């Protein structure tokens, strides 16, 4: 058994730090307007009683919190419920919010882990769900 990966418009050697293989899932409606982009610093600083800082180095992760509002029951049960059940908080997720080639595409792409267990709640409209996701991105 072998894998063949073709990179279009590329000649010569190619190296990749990782590869994403999976199924693309796109909600029928966009995410809610109240999304949050932030950071989660993994380092820290403690200041002792003599005023001397004790710095613990660590990287800073980008975070994204968003809600997929107005998911139909069918859309939730067929796509997002199985996805989040499989991912939990220990498998990586890749989300791209700007697939067009723009200067900001990297800043709108997240590859990481869900920060908290995903959940969905019933919406205002009957038979709709609102699902909240938080991503802690490694890129």
Helix content: 10-25%
Distance between the termini: 31 Å
Report Rg.
19 Å
**Proportion of beta-strand residues:** 35-45%
| SS element count, helices | 1
Summarize the helix and strand pattern as letters.
Answer: EEEEHEEEE
Number of domains: 1
Structure description:
With 139 residues, the chain is mostly beta strands. It contains one helix and eight strands. The strands form two sheets. Strands 1, 4, 5, 6, 7 and 8 form a six-stranded antiparallel sheet that branches. Strands 2-3 form a two-stranded antiparallel ribbon. A hairpin with a 5-residue loop joins strand 7 and strand 8 (128-137). The longest helix is centred in the middle third of the chain and has 15 residues, at 73-87. It is globular and about 60 Å long.
Characterize this entry briefly.
By secondary structure, the protein is mostly beta strands. It contains 1 helix and 8 strands.
What are the SSEs and their pairings?
Blueprint: E1 36-41, E2 44-47, E3 53-56, E4 60-72, H1 73-87, E5 93-96, E6 109-114, E7 119-122, E8 128-137
Antiparallel strand pairs: 1-4, 2-3, 4-8, 5-6, 6-8, 7-8
Task: Name the features.
139 residues, mainly beta, six-stranded antiparallel beta sheet, two-stranded antiparallel ribbon, 8 strands, 37% strand, globular
């Amino acid at each position: 058994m072998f894998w063949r990966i073709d990179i279009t418009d590329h000649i010569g050697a190619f190296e990749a730090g990782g590869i994403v293989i999976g199924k693309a899932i796109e909600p029928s409606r966009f995410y809610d307007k109240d999304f949050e982009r932030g950071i989660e610093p993994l380092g820290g600083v403690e200041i002792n009683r003599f005023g001397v800082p004790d710095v613990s180095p660590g990287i800073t992760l980008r975070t994204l919190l968003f809600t997929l509002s107005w998911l139909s029951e069918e859309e939730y049960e067929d796509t997002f419920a199985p996805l989040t059940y499989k991912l939990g908080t220990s498998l990586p997720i890749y989300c791209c919010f700007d697939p067009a080639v723009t200067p900001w595409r990297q800043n709108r792409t997240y590859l990481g882990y869900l920060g908290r267990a995903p959940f969905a709640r019933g919406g205002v409209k009957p038979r709709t769900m609102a699902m909240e996701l938080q991503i802690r991105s490694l890129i």
